[in-house]
Amino acid sequence: MAWIYLLVAGVLEVVWAFSMKQSEGFTRLTPSLITFATMAASFWLLSLAMRSLPLGTAYTIWTGIGAVGAFIVGIIFLGEQVSALRIGAAVLIVSGLVLMKVSSS
């Protein structure tokens, strides 16, 4: 169950990062409220996952899902730049996440 909590927490991290961008510096109410709600839920689920997963593994995977997810959302929804170097960086992050998962007991 801890891995499910961690996966959902990572997805919620992507949601709050995107809604924070949409809030325009917390000047728009609805995206600001979404940011705070999903941020709180993400932290809560991360804390539940950390009950049984090692700190280093849980935190690294949580931030990795957030980083790669935000990268993908930025490209798809915000028209951010796609380049071989940026894609290579995302692949390296995912590779690190896989190694963390494999090395966890």
TrEMBL record:
Subcellular location, principal: membrane
Lipid bilayer topology: Multi-pass membrane protein
Cell location: Cell membrane
SUPFAM superfamilies for this protein: Multidrug resistance efflux transporter EmrE (SSF103481)
Keyword Membrane carried by entry: yes
Domain of life assignment: Bacteria
Signal sequence segment: none
Sorted UniProt keywords: Cell membrane, Membrane, Transmembrane, Transmembrane helix, Transport
Transmembrane region(s): 33-50, 57-78, 84-102
Any one Pfam family match given in the protein's UniProt record, by short name: Multi_Drug_Res
UniProt xrefs under PANTHER family: GUANIDINIUM EXPORTER, SMR FAMILY PROTON-DEPENDENT DRUG EFFLUX TRANSPORTER SUGE
Family: Belongs to the drug/metabolite transporter (DMT) superfamily. Small multidrug resistance (SMR) (TC 2.A.7.1) family. Gdx/SugE subfamily.
Protein name in UniProt: Guanidinium exporter
